[in-house]
Amino acid sequence: MSSPARDVHATSEAPNSFVRRYIFSSDHKVVGLQYFFLALTAVTIGILLSLLMRFHLVWPAAHLPFVAGGIMEPEQYLALVTMHGTLMVFFVLTVAPQSAFGNYFLPIQIGAPDMAFPKLNMLSFWLTFTAFLCMIAAFCVRGGAPISGWTAYPPLTGLGEITGPGEGPGQTLWIVSILIFCFASLLGSVNFIATVIDMRAPGMTMMRMPLTVWAWLVTAILTLLAFSVLLAGGILLLLDRSAGTSFFLPAGLVVNGELQSRSGGSPLLWQHLFWFFGHPEVYIAILPGMGAISHILANFSRKPVFGYRVMAATLCAIGFLGFLIWGHHMFVSGMNPYSGLAFSLLTLSIGVPSAVKTFNWLGTLWGGKIQFHSPMLFAIGFVSFFVTGGLSGIFLAQPALDATLHATYYVVGHFHLVMGVASIFGIFAATYYWFPKMFGRMMNETLAKLHFWLTFAGAYCIFMPMHFVGIAGGIRRYADWTGANYLAALQPLHRFMTVAAFITAAAQIIFFCNLFRSLAKGARAPANPWNATTLEWITTSPPPFDNFGGRYPRVYRGPYEYSVPGASQDFLPQNLSAEEIARDKDSQDAG
Amino acid sequence: MPDSRLTQLAELNGAGGAGNGGASSGNGHGGNGPFDGGLIPQRTYVTGMMVALGAIAMFFVALASASIVRKGLAADWQPFELPRILWLNTLLLVASSVTLAHARRRFLAQQFEEFRHWWRVTAILGVFFLVGQVIAWWRLASSGVFLSTSPDSSFFYVFTVAHGLHLLGGTAGLLAVVRSSPGPMLRKTATEVVALYWHCMTALWLGVFLFLVATK
Amino acid sequence: MRLSRLSFTDAFERIKFHRRLADDRGSAVPSVLLAVLLAALVAVTVYIFAARIYGPPAAITSLGLRIDRQYDLTLYVTGVAFILAQLGLGYAILRFRDRGQRAHFTRGSTIAEVLWTSVTIVAFVGLGIAGSKAWAEMRFTPASRDSVQVEVTTTQFVYTFRYPGADGKFGRLDASLVNAPAGNPLGLDPNDALGRDDVVVPILTVPVNRPVELLLRSQDVIHNFFVRELRLQQDAVPGMVIPIHFTADRIGRYEIVCTQLCGLGHYKMHSFMDVVSESDYEQFLKRQAALQ
């Protein structure tokens, strides 16, 4: 009991002024919550955009709210496509799992008082927020938001307004926003990595870290390497647009009847740079979810994670292989077909650690004592979506099959299931799981379950049919089905998906109601509502300003000691020493 | 009081060792996070800098591979004569790394006056390098080679400006250290981090320069 | 309570809380409902794939048939994995729901890890190797020398097809001469004799049962050439000429669509490919030659 950590009582207090405490705060918990609410804002906008898109696809002639002129023009549809993708990928799937939950829980889970560089952390958030404003501003400029999709392939994006509406100031703002976002993410990842390396509590060896921490660490490394490449590529694209260079623009372009004076650049170069970032980005979105899911499955199965070391190793393997497979986005781009083959085999081999993770999740459930609280339901949902979306990726990983399925709704269904819905289920699971810790109150379980059933069934009803549309040749990013004759036959499926999308979106209102109601009126949360083992549960809910009230933990055991034979209760917190367990057992026996 | 707390945390974090427990950002709690007051173990700043250098390296590797690919594709690669002054600049930067290493040695030998002297010399050499780079750009521009003139010139400007901005940051760091409040313990980490960054920027310039010369 | 070092209020809150959770836990509803949903997912998905309710039209090349076989093989392998994983998940949550039992303590099993790692390596990489033959046939081999050559030029938002004419050679193109309103959408150089007999048309016509080589190029942004019946997609990238080849074995009209986002008219960028008999093809060439 007398380790130095526990005798340290005096710690600095939270600042008193509102601005310093809640707005320009460098407390990792406040920064984490700021990211969380930023992601909630972005996801709300993203969902609204997708509903407008779904509505337009089915009833193109109908008058719509929020749409200038009432009836949506093709360029407005494409602007929605672009902004939906960008907001979701960058400001939701990158921000929520890593920046929000990572910021809040990584330091606590390793027993640290804060991130390594608190002020840098604050700077990261405010830069991200600036990037967000910059992105939203793209809606408001002449020509509107860009129409080039979240991948922004030049020459469409490299020449300015001549290639289409939205390619003027809107596209410029888009690139500037992405550059700021890259910089903010790089700062954030430096912080994450340094924190994990240097700020661990005594006894917290790498192999005792919760899998969430492993996932955040690997994600931070991916962020560091991937976003620096996007930063470089983005600068070159911006120069092509504004300084007349031709990194990505070849000679002899005739756009809209006008000959462009560029020379010798390569559009494929952008695709390589973009996807060198873009593919790891997929894992940046999903890895933290995988970590949280492993954590939650063990907690509510009352069992250790099956194959902890393998789980940590597969996170690293996925992170490493994730950098070698960007070319599978470019099978039909005109890339060398031999590299296509290599990328194909590497892509299929990343399926191996992913499948091993799935087996280990099943192994964690197997023989457990499964408790179906809402975080657990979402975690199981994650596994189901990850399996479905992952397996549909096996088709796309083969270039011969990709030559049919590429750029169809099959791809849209695939990545929404595996990277969108699965990641979002990871975020929901994390929210329901950690809400008591973050806000000191419980969420309403009945509403949470209702939210789960509707979202689980609804998401499958939206994204499974997309696969069928894609197999039949339905092309993505089409504003209208009238362009090609055979597309009309796929309209019934589109109607089904649109109805499912509206129902699923409505179900999210339940989530928001539950969230905000619980913030104000939820039942008081105890420190450890789930009988969990990791360090975030040994402190109060919410944690004090310095996380542990001056009593810094020492770590004696691995993170998932559930149902250990011989122990008096079915969970052993990480900070419990062997003597304490023995003493506790004695007192139990005596009593 | 604060001191005992610091030592305890340093011990707790395994960052023990004499002279490592000093506050990093001045006295008292200047910030508004729980541990802005300097409870972060000192070696973390070095770790953070190393990680950041990894990102910087990746950024330049991306540019270099873009340049190689772009050159492989282009029929319009028009090489231009690199300004001679770049050789002089290279020499200045290498010299700055040497003086910096010397300053660090003086610092560790606790000869703080000499340390300040050599540290300032390093900063001045850095400023000279930056001025030299500006002269190089100006020479090129006056001979009609601009950013958008050819892929070769585009990459030249992108590389040199990107490196220049990084070095500008390094120079600011150097100046911040000599201007910061007294207390040798405080500056041990700061000098270490800035020196690490500066040496890496010198190495980066050598890499960039070699790359520019080699891809002519 | 000492175990997790909580204060008394905490302990009290926790007892209240766990009583509530215990009520919740006793119910079998979530596990049964979730298992039923998973089973329904498997049933519906398997039915839709097995009954082939949605799919592309029949392939018109031998390569297309080969791709379809690879698709089927992949469908079987992933289908089995899908069924086993989803039903296994459903079974686990039914079987191991909290009925007050003690969880079976295990940290993992090396044998199991080795087993499922090797099975997935064989399955996934095996599929990749099996599928690489179709890819090789599609892309590694050049078109045969006697192929009918057609150049495909894409612009926002039209396809233009050019045949080399009687001399079998394409004339020179010059980007500065492009002038669609004046009838020269490709920028054909009028001074180049090779180009005088070139045939420029908006719809692709190819002979049946003869190898065809398409040369894809683009004038402005990246477009794509996709015909479902050929099982073939290829981007047309400005600055590059990308060859693709096929031999269509069924006469008919097939739709060409653009699958690479190319601007606001992307959705309506399409054309047709007519596969015609050898004699019809000769007729087509003659008629067009007279028109040019």
Write up this protein:
The complex is a heterotrimer of chains A (591), B (216) and C (292). With 591 residues, chain A is mainly α. Chain A has 16 helices and 2 strands. Chain A has a two-stranded antiparallel sheet. Chain A is globular. Mean pLDDT of chain B is 80; it is low at 1-38. Chain B is elongated. With 216 residues, chain B is mainly alpha-helical. In chain B, helix 4 (112-142) runs antiparallel to helix 5 (151-179). Chain B has helices spanning 2-12, 43-73, 85-108, 112-142, 151-179, 184-214. Chain C is built from 5 helices and 10 strands. Chain C starts with 7 loop residues before the first helix and ends with a helix. At the A-C interface, helix 4, strand 1, helix 8, helix 9 and helix 10 of A face helix 1, helix 2, helix 3, helix 4 and strand 7 of C.
End-to-end Cα distance of chain A: 23 Å
How far apart are the first and last residues' alpha carbons of chain C, in Å?
A: 93 Å
Into which percent range does the helicity of residues of chain C fall?
40-55%
Major beta-sheet overview of chain C: 5 strands, mixed
Average pLDDT, all residues of chain C: 90
Q: In percent, how much strand structure appears in the residues of chain C?
A: 15-25%
Flag low-confidence runs of chain C: 1-7
SS summary, helix count of chain C:
5
Strand element count of chain C: 10
What is the SS-derived class of chain C?
A: alpha+beta
- Sequence stretches where pLDDT stays below 50 over 5 or more residues of chain A: 1-11
The strand order across the widest sheet of chain C is 3-2-1-5-8
Number of beta-strand segments of chain A: 2
Structural class by helix and strand composition of chain A: mainly alpha
Instruction: Write the element-wise H/E pattern of chain C from the N-terminal end onward.
Output: HHHHEEEEEEEEEEH
User: What is the oligomeric state here?
Assistant: heterotrimer
